[in-house]
Amino acid sequence: MIDDTAAGAAVRSGAAALSAPRWALAGLTALVMGVWPLVYPHSFALHIGTLVLLYCIGAASLHLVARMGHISLAHAAFMGIGGYTSVLLVMRLGWPFALSLPAAAGAAALLGLAIGPVLLRLSGKYFVLVTFLFGEIVRMVFSEWRDLTGGSNGIFNIPRPYPLFESPVAYYYLALGAMALCVGLCLRLVRSEIGRTMDALREGEQLTECSGVPVLRIKVTVFVIACAMVGIQGALQSHFVHFISPESFNIFESLNFVVMNVIGGLTNLLGPLLGALFLVLLPELLRDYVNLQRVIYGIILVVVMAFLPGGLVELGRRLRAGGARLLGRGEG
Amino acid sequence: MGALLQVEALSKTFGAVAAVNNLSFQIEPGEVVGIIGPNGAGKTTAVNLISGVLRPSQGRVRFGGEDVTGLRPDRLVRRGLVRTFQATTVYATRTVRENVRRGSFRKRYPGFLHALLETPKQRAWRAESEQHVDRILSWFGLSGHQDTQAAALPYGFQKTLGMAIALAAEPKLILLDEPAAGLSAEEADHVRDTIVRIRESGVTVVVIDHNMRFISNLCDRIVVMHHGEELAAGTPREVLTDPRVIEAYLGKRHVAAQIG
Asked: Is the CB of residue A73 less than 8 Å from the CB of residue A135?
């Protein structure tokens, strides 16, 4: 009897294993992501592929914050902190990238820890507004602290971490490894008791706190982890594109992360990954229509949000449901 | 044995308005005490102050002899003081079982790293807490509905589920904010029976309501609040016959008619 309960509990708690078709799909995706650069090492495709992977880190980390019911417009600021920290440590102090990368994550996490306990007491529009203002303040510091950051002109000729990573293929695999680690951590978080608690406090923060959950502590811890992750993206991206400037971390970049989550779907970690893929690829696909790019971009966003309010993740669900209906009719 | 809960000269002002003013009372272990008063008397504010949802402007709250004034709700839950809410507060889109599971957070969360790394300790805690959830569901007669979405439950069951979530935290004292509000007479009777059983299980109960009949049939003692202050306190009989209480509830004309 007890064993039954425990087993049932494991299933009900969401710790159940993925179904076989999903494992197969996940395995196939991992295989394709791992193998295609060897089969088709086209530099432009590798560049876009690497950017998609890096944005997956930022979008997935924002998913953690969104999962707790907060829409942060300061995410790009933490990305910038990570980027500038790594670049300055490498270029000014000669640190190896192996140390500057964790330092970048640490700096973004520290700032998150400093401001999180204040920010995360706010809710709804107040949180959005204050994160927007905070993001702008950080961007202005990047702009005005010219001696350190190069001001609005930014910093050029940022070296790749090691000679090995001069190769686009190698950098792609570096980004793939970082993405796998970060998204893996996000997945672990949302599937654990912490994820269950994050969902609970999004659905009823006061009720959750009155059930004994140290809400602020859990929110700050998750927020700090999210900041560290997007700091890693900032560092990897700056060394990848050889350039960093305050405008890389403005409000539009923060909005980009939010839109990736909304377009992909806010309720599932797959959502921000699909959103990152979609939003990084879209401008490239619209490259031939430069004048109309923003209009087309806007229309696509409106259409996706109007017809798929649950995001692109919902498309998969609808297709599966439609397929099942068709099969049912066929059998009938 | 000393008082389990002591409220000492508690006050809360919002601008110029004193929602609670110099409120004092104490609750002994094992009692069922009612806090009543007309709408706007400050009952819910008092509960918010005691349960840590609001910080008092003045005064102290002691629980189990310790000063717990201004502690956050989660810390009070850890000490054994739990509350429910006036509006039906359940996780509407989740199953009944998941709701109770969330109430038993303290039994299933050994710490952030344990949870993140899914350590053997985390697994053991979770397995044990699932049995605890089974017991709570069975105790409240909700086992048959454990896979039902909370929003799909009848209103009376949602109220019961709210109490089950609170009881899942294994409190020493539970503050029930208007547990019978909006219920039919039959549902209110069911809630009252449940409260009696909670008390019999060893949990001290404080019930906040404005329904005099519901409270007087249930409580050992009653504290009456009016305009944020204590108007009267005593046994249900003493309180029900107190002219000040009758006046506050029914108006001066009613008192004059009764006396005349």
From this structure: yes
Q: What angle do CA A37, A38, A42 make, to 5 degrees?
A: 50
Lowest mean pLDDT among A10-24, A44-58, B120-134: A10-24
Residues of B in contact with A204 (CB under 8 A): 89, 91
A80 in Cβ contact with A230 (< 8 Å): no
Quickly state the pLDDT bin for A330 (edges 50, 70, 90).
low
Contact B82 A208 (CB under 8 A): no
Q: What is the Cα–Cα distance from B153 to B147, expressed in whole angstroms?
A: 11
Rg (CA), chain B: 19
What's the rounded Cα separation, in Å, for the pair B137 and B103?
12
Residue A73 carries which side chain, given as an amino acid letter? L
Tell me the per-residue pLDDT of A114-149, one tens digit each, with 9 for 90 and over.
Answer: 999 999 999 889 999 999 999 999 999 999 999 999
Q: Give the minimum alpha-carbon distance from B160 to chain A in angstroms, rounded to a whole number.
A: 15
Mean per-residue pLDDT of chain A: 88
- Look at residue A36 and tell me whether its pLDDT is greater than 70: yes
Residue type, A69: G
Tokens matching residue A20: 């076989």
Question: What is the share, in percent, of chain A residues with pLDDT greater than 90?
Answer: 65
DSSP reduced 3-state for B34: strand
**Distance (Å, rounded) from C-alpha A274 to C-alpha A279?**
9
Tokens at A52, concatenated? 């998609």
Q: Name the token pair of A5.
A: 């309960």
CB–CB of B131 and A2 under 8 A? Answer: yes
Tell me if B85 and A214 make a contact (CB, 8 A cut-off): no
Q: Which of A155, A160, A173 is nearest to A249 (CA)?
A: A155
B231 vs B244: CA distance, rounded Å:
7
For residue A153 the two structure tokens come to 């002109």
| Residue type at A292 in one-letter notation | L
Mean pLDDT across chain B = 89
Q: State the ipTM, two decimals.
A: 0.87
Residue B4 has pLDDT above 90, yes or no: yes
Q: Which two tokens stand for residue A60?
A: 């997935």
The string of DSSP codes covering B100-144 is: HHHHTHHHH---HHHHHHT-HHHHHHHHHHHHHHHHHHHHTT-GG
Please give the structure tokens belonging to residue A6: 């425990």
